[in-house]
């Protein structure tokens, strides 16, 4: 009798030998297996984020390329002027639309880097990137990309005519600079709004939920 009582007391202090700790671990694993990813965080959500980053850079560079091309065409018209009228100062002033066109690509690069740095990959089988965040990043990319595409078109078309006309009549240069500046401001407006949209985060919704 004394031996049986001693054994019962020992098992009371060591429940793992009575019931088995493996059962507790198995129950926890089974409970976790019954959990699934949140419907707000599907596996395809990162696609929209990466698409937003790509579109921001692609459209921004398209605007920069078009603006540079058209502005260079206007700059080349200086070669048609008589040699004694061509001055270094005139050439340097005519490069202004080319510089402003290149800024369109920089704005697209900035928002693309910001979106890419906020991307989150899955942890084991758990997704960590919400569809809300993906839509926000897609919207930010399109806002910046299309705004800078429009900015590049405006700078390029006005730069082509403006450089040629300001070379013939230098008094027009100040007006051309204002036009180029307001055209470049379109891309800046898109960048500001894009940065605000890109800060929207819904990744706190990515918690496992019961199946």
Automatic annotation (TrEMBL):
**Keyword set includes Membrane:** yes
Location(s), subcellular: Membrane; Vacuole membrane
Q: So which domain of life are we looking at?
A: Eukaryota
Query: Its membrane topology, per UniProt?
Result: Multi-pass membrane protein
Q: Which UniProt keywords apply?
A: Hydrogen ion transport, Ion transport, Membrane, Transmembrane, Transmembrane helix, Transport, Vacuole
Residue ranges annotated for the V-ATPase proteolipid subunit C-like domain, each copy included: 51-115, 138-197
> Transmembrane ranges?
44-69, 90-115, 135-156, 177-198
InterPro entries annotated for this entry?
A: ATPase_proteolipid_c-like_dom, ATPase_proteolipid_csu, ATPase_proteolipid_su_C_euk, F/V-ATP_Csub_sf
Family matches, as Pfam families = ATP-synt_C
Gene Ontology MF terms in the entry: proton-transporting ATPase activity, rotational mechanism
A GO cellular component entry from the record: vacuolar membrane
Keyword match Calcium: no
> What family is it from?
Belongs to the V-ATPase proteolipid subunit family.
| Protein name as catalogued | V-type proton ATPase proteolipid subunit
Give the source species: Prymnesium parvum (Toxic golden alga)
